[in-house]
Design goal:
Blueprint: E1 15-17, E2 21-22, H1 26-29, H2 31-36, H3 44-47, E3 79-82, E4 90-93, E5 111-113, E6 126-131, E7 137-140, H4 141-144, E8 150-157, H5 175-179, E9 182-191, H6 192-199, E10 207-212, E11 219-223, H7 224-229, E12 232-237, E13 240-241, E14 251-253, E15 266-272, H8 279-282, E16 287-288, E17 294-295, E18 304-309, E19 320-329, E20 335-341, E21 349-350, E22 352-353, E23 363-371, E24 376-384, H9 393-400, E25 413-416, E26 422-425
Parallel strand pairs: 6-15
Antiparallel strand pairs: 1-2, 3-4, 4-5, 6-7, 8-9, 9-12, 10-11, 10-15, 12-13, 12-14, 16-17, 18-19, 19-23, 20-21, 20-24, 22-23, 24-25, 25-26
The structure holds the ligand Nc1nc2c(c(=O)[nH]1)N[C@H]1C(S)=C(S)[C@@H](COP(=O)(O)O)O[C@H]1N2 and molybdenum atom.
Length: 427
Amino acid sequence: MRNGIRRAGKCDLQPVAGNGLLDRRALFRAGAAMAAGAGFARSANATGPLQIEPWMREVGAPFVPYGQPSHFENKVARIFATLPGTTGTGASRTPLHALEGTITPNGLHFERSHDGIPEIDPTAHQLLIHGLVRRPLSFTVEALSRYPTVSRIAFIECGGNGGALYQKSPVQLGVQGLHGLLSCAEWTGVPLAILLDEAGVDPKARWILAEGADAASMSRSVPLAKAMDDAIVALYQNGERIRPGNGYPMRLLLPGFEGNTNVKWLRRIKLTDGPMMTKDETSKYTISLPDGKAQQFVFPIEAKSVITRPSPGLRLDGAGVYEISGLAWSGYGRIAKVDVSADGGKSWAPALLQDPVLPMALTRFRIPWQWNGGAAVLQSRAEDESGYVQPTREQLIAERGSKTIFHYNGITSWGVSANGELAHVYA
Ligand SMILES: Nc1nc2c(c(=O)[nH]1)N[C@H]1C(S)=C(S)[C@@H](COP(=O)(O)O)O[C@H]1N2
Ligand SMILES: [Mo]
């Protein structure tokens, strides 16, 4: 497979599902043997003795204060668009097809901003906690840094991610274009419950309003129960200060809740007795149903998965054994299982889940596949620990209609043609 997709070797393992899916345990048991028999390494006799390469003949580059990836990797980049006539509102998407493991490097974390990225002086920024509390409090970044901190690996997915799959015919994009409003990082900060306890929550409080310091003043209402449970006022992203595009100097992290509620550039939390019905939770982020009604406050992301490799834009280089790999996640907890199909959903085989499998974090899955060089349709189907199973696209649309763009978590299908090319298809 070109473009760096891993290709394993010939092996005589028996298929466990239609169209060539092999036992996931082969990745452990026979992984080395598969590679050894593969013939992808060249014979060392044929390549001759090791040469002194040009880069060994001169002193290497000096140190730099902040490192960047190799320039040979410069195609591994976000893609983005802003709405016509604006500079700020739009999104950049994570190149999921080009990444491995489960953690998104900070420079590739997706960004969704309703009015650009504010340039916030961290020494001037404050977080106000007020409303139904005994005493309103204001925190500087410096003050927050002295509170007990926790770290947590969590995905953030925009509620609009995958929205193109509600359309009648399959939009011809790859996994980055279709599902790239999804990233996962280790977030570090102060549990919001500690700050709310200090302010003294009035027994009448039921919700919080969280507001950002951007020009959009983006704000969302969230049940107090979530704020007291696992919400974090995050200051760090993968060990360094949060990037400007992701909420510097602080953001709200609500593990498993739709991206929009994870308010960036957080400046205000107001405790209230009910939701505030802000523009961001009435005109947007509601699910329009076929009967004209709308579902509001749909918070957790339902279980979802997608195959990242192979996927459109990448290409299979001749019949043989390949590893199918992808990501699964759920806002309701851990991923329990991912099944993969190579025949458009007729038959399924369980994929290997790579450790660690964390609640509300991305989980990597893998399964070996013997491609016979013919047509195939690759799909993945996640199940979370609540027992909820990712629906097919038909099931999702039968239930919800297709008037919305939000919370698409149906199955995605990649069609493979005999020339090894992949395309987004509806199976
Ligand atoms: N203040 C503020 N917070 C915001 C937004 C925004 O525009 N302004 N966008 C929201 C949306 S729609 C999403 S999906 C997530 C995206 O987080 P990220 O940009 O760090 O990936 O941030 C949310 N928080
Ligand atoms: Mo979003």
